[in-house]
Structures are given as C-alpha cells and as structure tokens.
Design goal:
Blueprint: H1 7-15, H2 20-27, H3 31-39, H4 46-56, H5 60-64
Helix pairs in contact: 2-3
C-alpha cells in the first residue's frame, strides 16, 4: 500500500483513543513508523499489520484489504 494513505488505520486509531505514539508503543515501533504507514510512505510487514490490528481490535480486512471501491479502475 505504499503511496496510498491508510485513512482506515488512522480512523481506527482515533476511535480507539490512541495517539500515534500510543499505538507505536503498543506494537513496538516508533511513532514515525506509524505516521509513515498512515501517510502511505511505508509498507508494513505482515507481523506488524497483525500487531496493529490486535492493538486496535480490528481485522486485517478492516485496515489493509482493498475492496473494489478502493482499487483503481482497470486501465487495460
């Protein structure tokens, strides 16, 4: 998901009442890493995705799966 903002993660974090620093501490990364993931500048490992989902009490699909409305149109 590099280059594409992860607004779902940002919203889930806000709903959970966590700052970027709080979430970072919960999953063992820096605040900057969380900021980069939300901004689309870093593609997290599967292990980090799972840890973030556990900390936010959401599923991988909730935060990281693109559905048809998120995907770019097919330009064949």
């Amino acid at each position: 998901m590099p280059g594409k903002k992860n607004l779902r993660m940002k919203a889930a974090r806000a709903t959970a009442g966590l700052s970027q620093a709080d979430l970072a501490q919960a999953v063992g990364v820096t605040r900057q890493t969380i900021g980069l993931i939300e901004a689309g500048g870093y593609n997290p490992t599967l292990n980090l995705c799972v840890a973030i989902c556990k900390a936010l009490r959401v599923t991988l699909n909730d935060l990281f799966w693109e559905d048809e409305t998120d995907a770019a149109p097919n330009t064949l």
